[in-house]
Amino acid sequence: MTAELVRGQNHPLSQARLEIRVSAGTPIVAAAALSDETGRIHGVEWVAHPGAPTQPGLEVSRQAAADHRLAVDLDALPEAVHRVGVLLALPVGGAGPVRFGAVAAPFVAVTGLDGGEIASYTLTGLDAESAVVALELYRRQGAWKVRAVGQGYAGGLAELLSDQGLPEARQLAGSIDEAVAQGLARSVQAPPPRTADGDRSRQTATPALGPDQGGTAPQGAPGPVPPTSPYGGQPPGVPGQPTPQPTYPGTAPDPSAVTQPSVPTAGSPIDYSHPHRQNTAPPPPPPTAPPAAPGQPAQPVAGDATGWSMEERLYNQVWGMFEDLARTTAAYRSAVDFAESRMDKELEQVLSDPRSRIGGQGDAAREAARARHAQLVAQAREALDRDIAQLTAEADVVEPALPPAYARWDNPVWHAYRPPMEIPMALRLGDLHLPEADRIRIPMLVRLPLERGLWIDSGHTGSSDGSFTDSHAMGRLAMETAVAHAARLLAVYPAGEFTVHVIDPAGSGAQPLAPLVRSGVLAAPPALGAAGVADVLGRLTQRVDLVQMAVRGGAADSLPPGFDTSQQLLIVNDFPHGFDDRAVNQLRYLADEGPAFGVHLMMVADREESSGYGPLLDPLWRSLLRLTPVSDDHLADPWVGHAWTYEPSLVPPGSQVLQQVLARVAAARTKY
Predict the structure, then answer these.
(1) The 3-state secondary structure of 535-570, one letter per residue
(2) pTM surpassing 0.85?
(3) Shortest CA distance to 214 belongs to which of 384, 394, 30?
(4) What is the DSSP string of 452-499?
């Protein structure tokens, strides 16, 4: 029976190998600290954190996420350790909340390797605290217990670690923040939460054996979850607790279908908020297909999620597919881990008995353990294959139905392209997939207007095929990727509502930029040399200053006559060539302040070549979403922590679709 703890209450632990699961309504940092009998941490090597996720007997997540799993092996802890503290903190320096009082109460559970919950604790009563000691595992008279602590610190991790006697508390807190910031810079947007009416209900499937077969539930407590398929309905929640809604700092703060209305500025005609946002719940999807027969999987239908329009329903459906794939893959990996740990434990028991080390009895026990392992893995793979087959069928239906903003460049929808009258909800930047389901490509959608700049990395990547090792080939392909993204942005915005500027100091991007230049969709020819860099950056910096003062002062009508209120995109090629210190500071200013006032950055650069400026540019790189011109597994989700392989959205070789779309954009701009 699960013990639901209150602050200060303890509960005995009967197992040495445990899992501590954390569920929160926002990405948080999870760490674990070892201490002696007095609760003192002896050194930085006694703390497992995202920068050093593995310590003796401990393993924590490498990034901030809304859900965490911490592995603890009490038998593997050093002899001097008498306490293990579970530490939670809010990431600093991002766009997320800065105090626990502003988010849903975190939920922490201690479970065995079989998924059975031993004790749980909901951290209520937090307010200004930004770091908290959630639980403490402690040893008393040779036995281990768990205690609900809930001690919060308004000073963050530095104050928390200092209170536990760590001399290098501030340095360690800084290194943890740095590791988390680097993880956020390579993260993709979290999927929108499922709505209460179950917009992605599916036919219940036979569960696989093993722990946590339902995967990690981003909206509920990680308690004793019954094994389920992603198509088996709603994820479990915490009894008596509101369902937390995962968000991600640095991306759109409200990716769900039910969005909040923006706050208008008095007297301001400039509104960069999304035009489709509503303050009421969207209607359920209309019935478009007959229900599936008993025992048969549901027939996939494009647009079967909730939403006010087909565009919004497709957006929610795409991220529902992302969520389903993440859940079923997490369930499969968890089952395989359990099968391996169970086999290791059984083999360890066999080897611990001298009588069974040799002879037929030992061989039979080892074969039986391996057979059980193979059976569990086979059952998990069967459930995974079933879910992947259903998702593949859904992807085959959804992909052809996507509008231009969501569609690949080879989608026939581009042949009937016409400049839109309204800004779409989101934009496709590429595809995401996992190694267990290589057949499925999930569109990577980001909300519009962009709330983060983009960095197209022209340096060497971790591409699995080892292609494009030549720096010139990578640079050209990176610029072609940037042009494809810019063309898509121009195509999905109404005529006259999106403007593109280009800085190409050395002129190295002339050939990839040719489609934009020839079609006449650029605001001006690409800026060359140091003088061109200074001119473009000066004008855009002044624009941000003017709009910022006007909007914040409630005097937007005082902007100069003929002021261009459209969204602005600045493409910077071959950085830092042609940039002096003033230009670098202006670029950082645009990256920090520009998105809120309609100016966005798209950097095409090799970070290694830009390292000459030292740590000055680190905040710039962290504020941008890194993309690659070739397939690379550098992106992580803040939900279950999978490493997703990203594939850029490129125009097929030999296709004229880009030129045709840009020609129609140019014609519409001329009429406008």
Answers:
(1) HHHHHHHHHHHHHHHHHHCCCHHHCCCCCCCCEEEE
(2) no
(3) 384
(4) SEEEEE-S----TT----SHHHHHHHHHHHHHHHHHHHHHHSPTTSEE
Region class of 364: left (phi > 0), else alpha (psi between -120 and 50), else beta: alpha
pLDDT for 650-669, tens place per residue? 999 989 999 999 999 999 98
- CA 259 centroid distance within chain: 19
Q: List, for residues 212-262, the tens digit of each pLDDT value.
A: 333 333 333 333 333 333 333 333 333 333 333 333 333 333 333 333 333
Q: Which two tokens stand for residue 640?
A: 């279950």
The residue type at 626: R
* For the chain, percent of residues with pLDDT exceeding 70: 78
Using alpha carbons, list the distances in angstroms from residue 441 to 9, 216, 318, 393: 47, 21, 10, 12
* Residue 99 and residue 28 in contact, taking contact as beta carbons nearer than 8 Å: no
Helices (H), 493-643: 510-519, 529-552, 581-593, 618-623
Whether 646 has a pLDDT exceeding 80, the answer reads yes
- Between these two residues, 603 and 216, which has the higher pLDDT value? 603
Q: Write out the two tokens for 239.
A: 């009894």
- Residue 45 is encoded by which pair of tokens? 């090597």
Q: What DSSP element (H or E) covers 184?
A: helix 169-185
Q: Which amino acid is at 537?
A: L
What is the rounded average pLDDT of the residues 623-647? Answer: 86
Answer yes or no: are the C-beta atoms of 202 and 194 closer than 8 Å.
no
